[in-house]
Amino acid sequence: MxxxxxxxxxxxxxxxxxxxxxxFDQRDEDGIVVLRTAxxxxxxxxxxxxxxxxxxAQAIRIEEP
Amino acid sequence: xVAIPAPAATALPDAPRFPFGRECPFHPPxxxxxxxxxxxxxxxxxxxxxxxxxVTRHEEIRAVLMDDRRFSGAMAHPDFPTVTEARxxxxxxxxxxxxxxxxxxxxxxxMFTREFSVRRMLALKARxxxxxDAVIDELAAHGPPADLAGTLAVKFPSLxxxxxxxxxxxxxxxxxxxxxxxxGLTQTPGEALEKARALAAYFRRLIDDKEARxxxxxxxxxxxxxxxxxxxxRDDFAEIGAMILRAGHxxxxxxxxxxxxxxxxxEDLRRRAADPASVDAAVEELLRFITPVQFxxxxxxxxxxxxxxxxxxxxxxxxxxxxxxxRDERVFADPDxxxxxxDATDHLTFGYGIHxxxxxxxxxxxxxxxxxxxxGRLPGLRLAVPLEEIRFKDDMQIYGVHxxxxxx
Lengths: 65, 408
What we know:
The complex is a heterodimer of chains A (about 60) and B (about 400). With about 60 residues, chain A is α+β, with helices and mostly antiparallel strands. Chain A has one domain (about 1-65): Alpha-Beta Plaits, CATH 3.30.70. Helices cover about 25% and strands about 20% of the residues of chain A. The longest helix of chain A is centred in the C-terminal third of the chain and has 10 residues, at about 45-55. Chain A is globular, with a radius of gyration of 10 Å. Chain B has about 400 residues and is of the alpha+beta class. Chain B has helices spanning about 30-40, 60-65, 85-90, 105-110, 120-140, 150-165, 170-185, 190-210, 220-225, 235-265, 265-275, 280-290, 320-325, 360-375, and strands at about 40-45, 50-55, 70, 145, 300, 305, 310, 315-320, 380-385, 405. The interface between A and B is medium-sized, with 21 and 25 residues.
């Protein structure tokens, strides 16, 4: 799985960082999403898919192999 | 044997007056479910005789809230739909980003997102726990009976907001009075506007105080980061601050009151909400089941849009019924049952799209702390009156209970 985030779309709800902190973080200055890793471990895949589905700005895109 | 014919399915009423009354205090009006089974849109008539659409299904509600190009959330729009005459006045005078479309919305919101970031909220969690313990100590010292809705459910979120914002705790009654005066369904336009203006004026004075005497709080930090560099005017900050104060008090208070009432009536829910290991899932299920925000979000169509075979005309208003989305059978099995074992996280209680609740992580942490703290410390907690004596907030835009007499 490959993860992409769109910082222009992000509204800083922080829900990805709350639920999958291994993969998502927030910028200190404005709470906008930053990726810790674009290729997360397989065991995190279900949580990452859910974070993508729940993102209120649809700013998380997933490329499945 | 005479066969009794099955009753014909009752036809849906033609554009009934909205809002509807609840048949049962624990469920949304039954017309939501009937409308939802018929289609994603349902026409209603508002207080001013205007027609509007209820959007009732999870999928279509998410789609509309994501479609900023064809639907506007600008509260100043002349066709923006309202539930009361007072709400028109409130909407027209809304100056915070909650009532703006992009790009203005993101411009202002991004000045505040870091104040509600997960990192900052996690850092606040120990303080939230300490506040919870202190208010429960106070309740225990007072002794039974006590009205949980009027005491702890108000005081706990007020103290948390006070710690975050830097507003003096003594001001919380005034803040709540302003929030409630604006969130009612029965007040006059004059009263609603006066309360809205009073809270912004209060926050404007708070900004002056913090400029003179800065502290470790939201107001002082935003003054440094955005007001002093000239990116945010003091008046705009005051309007946004008033919005944050209103949102941070009324909603959490109602989740505590209603959530505790449900816990006291349901052994499985109570056990799960009392246990720190299972409370997170219980909180999500309670957020789904209760859905305190009743008549927001709203949108107005900027062009003709077809949704599920029905055309919404340019200029028509829509109510995105979160409470209906959260009972949508297409997403949640047996939706009218509280089931903490389900994954409730698809709920839309905090909205969706660019306006999704800025304070949702704070709200979640408050609830994840207060339910187990209260149920753990007072294991004998029980309702002190029959259910018939509980007054539900059918007169408010944020649903909950007016009173919750308990003993232990």
